[in-house]
What does this fold into?
Amino acid sequence: MTATDPALTALAQGWCALSLLHGRIEAHIERALQSGHGLSVREYSLLDVLSRQHDGEGGHLQMKQVADAVVLSQSATTRLVTRLEDRGLLERYLCPTDRRGIYTNVTEAGLKLLEEARPTNDAALRESLDEAARNPELAPLVRVVESLKAPAAA
It folds into this structure.
């Protein structure tokens, strides 16, 4: 492929459209969560991921798994966990079977805030997708997003 290859241009255009859709959705959700609940998109995502943990085999996520789930580096995830812990929304404790491991759980206050923020997140996502669907360049991507099914739990 060369820089003037039409396939590359189409690929680049598709990537730009996907990036635009993501940016618009994230910005809309960010404004809604910040104004309604004092949460950023990343904070909401982290609380959501950690709220799905459970006791038992494979129930608690390692920091790398959490970082992958919220699409941040491990160091950025650790800083985010610290901020939410300082706000009383998360707590850390040592793994009972491996003193080197640290678990992070959502507190009752964090679960309450997450429950209050979830409808705001969902409504802002729907609004963003509906708005993007009116744009001919973004409409095909919106249809793909809407057609995706959640992966089955392992």
